[in-house]
Amino acid sequence: MRIETIGNATLYLGDCLDIIPTLPLVDAVITDPPYSSGGAFRGDRTLDPAAKYVKSDSGNKELQSFTGDNRDQRGFHFWSALWCGAALRRTREGGVCLFFSDWRQLPISTDYMQAGGWVWRGIVPWVKTAYRPQKGRFAAQCEYAAWGSAGAMPTERGVGCLPGFVQCASPNEREHITQKPDALMDALVQVVPVGGVVLDPFMGSGTTGVACVTSGRRFIGIELDPTHFETACRRIENAQRQGRLMA
Questions:
Q1: How many CA atoms lie within 13 A of 177 on its CB side?
Q2: Are the beta carbons of 12 and 3 closer than 8 angstroms?
Q3: Which residue positions in the chain have pLDDT lower than 50?
Q4: Strand, helix or coil at 61?
Q5: d(C-alpha 20, C-alpha 13), whole Å
Q6: What is the pLDDT of residue 64?
Q7: Model's pTM, two decimal places?
C-alpha cells in the first residue's frame, strides 16, 4: 500500500476492501465503481472495458483499461455489497452516498446499496448533451447515480436545495475510459457540506477528488491500478496548485 497526501486530499494505492476499515470517519461516499455492464448477454461482460465502453473509431482506444469490470451478476452483487457495507461503517450518521451505474445495472445497484446497509433515497440522472440516436428506440442518453444515506438524514445539514438531475457533456479529452466530466462531479459534491470529507473507493483518474479540493471539501481516494493512481495524484495536485494561484 502507498499513501500520498496532497493538500486536503489523502490518496491510497491498494484494494479498497483492505483500506476502508483503516480510514477515519467520512461525510460522504461518492464513487464510480466498475459495474460489470456492457452488452445484452453474460459473455459480453467478460470483454475488456476498452472493448465494451469505447467506440472502435475513438482515440480513447489508446487509454489504459482497468480491472474488476467483468463479474457475473451474482458476483457483482455480492462484491458490491461488501465494499459499500464497509464504506457505510466509516460514514458518519446522516452521511450521503452516490454510486454510479448505467441503465443495465441500475436495479442491482439500488439493491446492493440497501444490502450494504444504506437507506436508498433516489436516483440522480446524468443527462448527456451529446448521445447516439437510435432509430425506433429511446436513446441511452443517461447514466445514473443511485444515492442514499447512512441512516436518518437531517434536513439542516449546511446544504441548500439541489436539482434532481445534472445535464452536461461527456469530457472530450480524458485520461480514463470511464472518466466523468468535471462539471458533473462539481455538481454532485454540493450534497456534502463545505469542509466535509468525501471518500471515493474507486478513484480512477481522480475527478471526484478534483471537484472536492476545488470546492473546499476534503478528499480520501483509493485506487488499485498504479497508472491511474499516478494520474489522479497529478490531476489533484494540479487542482490544488490552481486553487492556490487563484486565492
A1: 20
A2: yes
A3: 48, 52-53, 56, 66, 245-247
A4: helix
A5: 12
A6: 57
A7: 0.85
